[in-house]
Design goal:
- Helix content is 58%, strand content 5%.
- Helix 4 runs antiparallel to helix 8.
- The strands form 2 sheets. Strands 1-2 form a two-stranded antiparallel ribbon. Strands 3-4 form a two-stranded antiparallel ribbon.
- It is globular.
- It has 16 helices and 4 strands.
- The protein has 2 domains: 95 residues, Endonuclease Iii, domain 2 (Orthogonal Bundle); 123 residues, Endonuclease III, domain 1, CATH 1.10.340.
- The chain has 253 residues and is mainly α.
- The chain binds a DNA duplex (13 and 12 nucleotides) through helix 4, helix 5, helix 8, helix 11 and helix 12.
DNA sequence: AAACAGGCTGACA
DNA sequence: TGTCAGCCTGTT
């Protein structure tokens, strides 16, 4: 395989790991083709894959993504990178790396805030501190099983959250995209809508009604746990893949 | 121009 | 344990 990058570290074995070229996608897809909905989604978005993202960058990005939207998330990540990241060059063009936890930790509050992060600035800094000082250790957390790892990401020590800004949805995203937990099934508003529409039986009547009519369309913590568990039970070990295809289906209709 | 956007925290029942 | 308001900010 041939590839080009700005760094020697990003060689072909990195690319192989990042894009999961070691896995047989057809086998994975066969395991989640449990109904016509997934069949249609897989046909429509055939080739869509999970990738193995860098762990700190992934968690930090999803902390920033809270209560926001894709264009804005992109703007926040790019701004933070250009202000606090290392300058890079690739094929003559300038780029910036995503900043290290240390860089975010050292950042002046007002400067961090001026990246347009809003109240997420505080969360990003606290997560950076926890990663930098070892309060949270990715190696140890991601070596646990799914349930324990999710508990670890959202846990409290002496009543204080270890990772402020990391709730159930953010934790599931980190576990799926950078923690090697393929059974994680993150539920954002799009996925919740898709479940209500295509899998009403898995959702339950009251929640379905709420998403349909009520102005309050955000899942409560208990609703989230219950729903994500039933989706994991239904799709099994590769539920995260099912979620990705369902998400795409939900957004393209 | 009020609502909404790829939720979470802190306070309270 | 489960609810609920409030929250930065950009966009529609």
């Amino acid at each position: 395989m041939r590839c080009a990058s700005s760094s020697d570290r990003l060689d072909s074995s990195f690319v192989r790991n990042y894009f999961r070229l070691d896995e047989d996608l057809t086998v994975v897809l066969a395991s989640i083709m449990k109904d016509d909905v997934e069949r249609e989604a897989i046909q429509k978005f055939y080739g869509l894959k999970l990738v193995r993202q860098e762990r700190w960058e992934c968690l930090a990005s999803f902390v920033l993504a809270t209560n926001s939207n894709i264009p804005r998330i992109r703007a926040m990540v790019e701004k933070v990178s250009s202000v606090f990241g290392e300058p890079l060059e690739f094929e003559g063009l300038p780029y910036h790396s995503f900043p290290s936890p240390e860089a975010i930790r050292r950042a002046k509050a007002s400067k961090l805030r001026s990246c347009g992060l809003g109240y997420r600035a505080r969360f990003l800094r606290q997560v950076a501190e926890a990663v930098d000082d070892g309060s949270i250790d990715f190696d140890s957390v991601y070596s646990m099983g799914y349930e324990d790892a999710r508990r670890a990401l959202t846990s409290k020590i002496y009543g204080e959250k270890v990772l402020l800004g990391v709730g159930p949805k953010v934790a599931d995203c980190a576990l799926l995209f950078s923690g090697g937990k393929d059974e994680a099934f993150p539920i954002d508003v799009w996925v919740a809508r898709a479940i209500a529409r295509f899998y009403p039986a898995l959702m339950g009547r009251s929640l379905r009604k709420k998403l349909g009519s009520s102005a309050q369309k955000k899942l409560t913590a208990p609703e989230y746990s219950k729903l994500s568990k039933s989706m994991r039970d239904y799709f099994g070990a590769n539920a995260g893949y099912a979620q990705q295809y369902l998400y795409m289906l939900s957004r393209n209709r």
